[in-house]
From TrEMBL:
Belongs to the cation transport ATPase (P-type) (TC 3.A.3) family. Type IB subfamily. The chain holds residues 279 to 574 of 631 of the full protein. Coiled coil: none annotated. Signal peptide: none annotated. It is found in: Cell membrane. This is Heavy metal translocating P-type ATPase. The lineage of its organism: Bacteria, Bacillati, Actinomycetota, Actinomycetes, Streptosporangiales.
Length: 296
């Protein structure tokens, strides 16, 4: 017996590395005519490495002290930045102390109690307030961001203690995937990221994306998707993180990066890229469209 076209297309998408959850999900994918992509873990490899450790000059911590506290606070987190910080500490042979009262705020960072001290690690723009130490940390973060790094601030008991720089590579196939998606949809792809504008511009320039929104919280990603849909487009949102989950659910079609992607993103999406290659995304769009053309 021959398979119905939609089922055949789901099987075929699977062979191309995309798991589509249902025939309806495939139809939603076929109807999309604008693409929104997350940066960290989606356009980038999502295996960032720790590149810089900068304790504040005149502060109480040296490089290893700063990194050890940050790694302890990050250890329970599933965020790719957290993995880079923990990995960086291990590479220096630093002990990673247990963390208590861990809390993660998607798009902002993490907080935990380590050796009786409250440690926060996250977005400089969101964690650093007023004052001399905050200004010094923000200055240092700016220097790192200028080089395309993702800078994260470290606060100990509410006081800025230093900044870490994390470097992430674009996926080798990112530019090709973006240009195929632009051609398929006839619309410029959108980059939606919680990262800083400079790191966002770096990724955009490397992939040919011109429509960039940076510094977004999870709800801001939803708003960006909604505004594209209100302008008459059906959006295919591609993302990997907990911070992408609401936008994946809100979009016409949500596609999660399966490789190192978070469980919440996978649950919120209509489809998952299981081969961990971005080029599978335009391939799946083409397949979905051809299958739908056969049944309607
Ligand atoms: P993206 O949208 O590019 O995938 P996220 O929204 O996940 O990025 O993160 C946005 C920003 O929030 C990061 O650049 C970082 O400053 C901060 N952040 C989020 N989670 C963490 C974490 N676990 N550790 C440090 N910083 C974090
Ligand atoms: Mg991400």
């Amino acid at each position: 017996a021959t398979m119905p076209p939609m089922l055949a297309a789901i099987a075929n998408a699977g062979r191309h590395g995309v798991l589509v959850k249902s025939a309806r999900a495939l139809e939603r994918l076929a109807l999309c005519d604008r693409v929104a992509l997350d940066k960290t873990g989606t356009l980038t490899e999502g295996s960032p490495r720790l590149a810089d450790v900068r304790p504040l000059a005149g502060g109480p911590l040296d490089e290893n002290g700063l990194l050890a506290l940050a790694a302890a606070a990050e250890n329970p987190s599933e965020h790719p930045l957290a993995a880079a910080v923990v990995q960086g500490a291990r590479a220096r042979g630093l002990p990673i102390a247990p963390a208590a009262e861990f809390a993660a705020a998607p798009g902002r960072g993490v907080a935990a109690t380590v050796d009786g001290r409250r440690v926060e690690v996250g977005s400089p723009a969101r964690l650093l307030g007023e004052g001399t130490a905050a200004a010094a940390a923000a200055g240092e973060a700016g220097v790192l961001e200028e080089r395309g790094r993702t800078a994260v601030a470290v606060l100990v008991d509410g006081e800025p203690a230093g900044v870490l720089g994390v470097a992430d590579r674009l996926r080798p196939e990112a530019a090709a995937a973006v240009s195929r998606l632009a051609a398929l949809t006839g619309a410029p792809p959108l980059l939606l990221t919680g990262d800083n504008p400079r790191a966002a511009e770096h990724a955009a320039a490397g992939t040919g994306i011109t429509d960039v929104r940076a510094g977004l919280l999870p709800e801001d990603k939803v708003a960006a998707v909604r505004s594209a849909e209100n302008a008459g487009r059906r959006v295919l949102m591609v993302g990997d993180g907990v911070n992408d989950a609401p936008a994946l659910a809100a979009a016409g079609c949500g596609m999660a990066m399966g490789g190192a992607g978070s469980d919440l993103a996978l649950e919120s999406a209509d489809a998952a890229v299981v081969r961990d290659e971005l080029i599978a995304v335009p391939a799946a769009v083409s397949l979905a469209r051809r299958a739908r053309a056969l049944v309607v």
